[in-house]
Amino acid sequence: MNLAAPGLQQPNPQLDAQGNLRHFLTLDGLDRALLTDILDRTEGFLSVARQPVKKVPLCRGKVIANLFFENSTRTRTTFELAAKRLSADVLNLNISTSATAKGETLLDTLRNLEAMHVDMFVVRHADSGAAHFIASHAAPHVSVINAGDGCHAHPTQGMLDMFTIRQHKGDIAGLKVAIVGDILHSRVARSQISALNTLGAAEVRVIAPRTLIPTCAAEALGVEVFHDLREGVTDCDVIIMLRLQRERMTGGFLPSEHEYFLLFGLTEKRLTTAKPDAIVMHPGPINRGVEIDSEVADGPRSVILEQVSNGLAVRMAIMSTCIGTQYLAGQGAERDRPHD
Amino acid sequence: MTEPSPQRLSVLAARVIDPASGHDGIADLHLADGRILAIGPAPADFQPEQRIDANGLLAIPGLVDLCARLRQPGLEQKATIRSETRAAASAGITTLCCPPDTQPVVDTPAVAQLIHQIAETNGYARVVPAGSLTQNLAGEQISEMAALARAGCPVLSHADRPIRNTRVQRRALEYAATFGLTCFLHPADAALSEGGLVHEGRVSTRLGLPGIPEASETVAVARDLALAEQTGARIHFRGLSTARATEMLAEARARGVQVTADVSAHQLFLTEDDIGTFNANALVLPPLRTEADRKALRAAVAAGVISAICSDHQPHEPDAKLDPFPQTSPGISTLETLLPLVLRLVEEQLLPLHDALACVTSHAADILGLPFGRLQPGAPADFCLLAPEQRWTLTPERMQSQGKNTPFLGQTLQGQVSMTFLGGRLVFKDERDGAS
Hints:
Chain A is of the alpha/beta class.
């Protein structure tokens, strides 16, 4: 008998009592229908960028606070822009000069922001589980979106990658996808793998030296493990390269960037075993000549810049799903989504 | 609360269980001057000042806990010797061995004597500090072990901090062997466990948490067994967590190495899966491991390879667990679940009641080299009366410990301590609702 209440059997902390999405913390535990719904909603937001007035009123009157405890330019600005396009009021907190840096606890920081009637926290943090922690202590009307926590999850990046794949391949079901690089430390990879498996990818492969593959990867993540790039990308529809953080060289995971590129860097030559119409992705920022050759990064198969463009629409879709008003079909009225 | 206790006392019609001798039967227990005078008929001319009707209750030796952090001196915001010995008394525990990682560290006689003094003045249980193997637990210079032993440290320990330098470890064991002192060792390789939080496996991979591999424990066990053989030291592995380590332990014991081991009670019930979605109350060191490890630990207890079960009590203030998972402090408040969990092993038919109780009484006392954990004439009258069938729910309000940090909150447990005696003195009497 297991005496303690196992967390795996608890209700999904991301859903409210009605089963609606309240928090967006991880792609684990979200079903195919919900992920597909987000991707469908994203389609609708793509056109907003092409409108003369690039705004929709779905989050009008809402306050969204960007809490970035880790440096980020791309993700933070994308979230900020997405919130503004949804007509929300946006707070950007500079954590390095905030009360937290002066010793205030994270919970006290949250309580103070909640007192300002913030409706949503967008959280990036160096610790795995930080977004879950904040969500578990947030007031009932507050939603939390995980913008990356430690090595755990980066669910919005995972969704924008799924959207990009769907744009090019029509459907994720049945695809063979290879993810190359530092799987061990990659929150992006974990989210991508979770989404790919939920959305019915035929095969998800991870390719890296053993030092960058987590223990029990096949069992825990549902992937096939390869240590040879050429073999791993064979017959793949999608190849996702991951950024190699330079501290991995000093951490004893790799001998040198040179050897890594020789063995695992993506070049046109190594792409020849993949499907002819395979696309190449990268969550950015890219290290040219370390994990990917410029010829590939700037080549016809690369959809790297499209990923960036899609990030805005995906985040709008997710934010509005959590806290946006819903247009009631046939009634022309807006209504707040109730949170218990 | 403690209350003035009679010099002479008879406990009537209890089921007296003494795991050390194998005694098990309905009998009277007669105490005088803090010791057990007789079990069975009262000696001629014995006139008790008080009689206690213990019909329907078990009388068992007071539990001996090999590892409980009481947080004093230095971390009184978490707990105090007074608060935790009270909790211990309420759970039938009468002897607590606290590791040396207090502030200051137990590396001088003064700190050891301070702990003894506070315990004797305020305590509801005996407290024996483990002396530090090295000065300030720094792993560099061995401590004055002889002086620590004279100051009342029955064993030496390095808390949960591995000694990095194998040469220092060797010298520490060698020097301890000079005085016949047992060394408590936390089997973890410093480099392999550095930065790790949870077992390196499925859950660490899924949650993106840094892992502590099984090899961290097995490498340390191999090293320490080799050093024990080299030095002739008597070592005790404090808190095994892996199946492979239990195999290595069994093999070494069969070879005649002077080695014993214990396991934390929660390791026999919880696995890595209980971390769930970043449950900070399941963050412990050594980490909760796999179901296979849990089963192997239980088998090792049943076979007597692991001879003691301890609480590994680590009370924390609420704030210590109110942070993102990696920022929270490891440890569970476990004094009050130790006996119920041991009784559950019996209920689950892992081992007989006698053997289970021996793991928390006589075997543990033997590892400390102390004359406790026994119900025999002449032994200190440390015992508790227990209602074995009584069920109760663990709630923060009910917990006596200052630390409420436990994954067992809300669980229904079985086995309620009715009274606890320390040296013949009543230190706990259950007066809660539903008490017998």
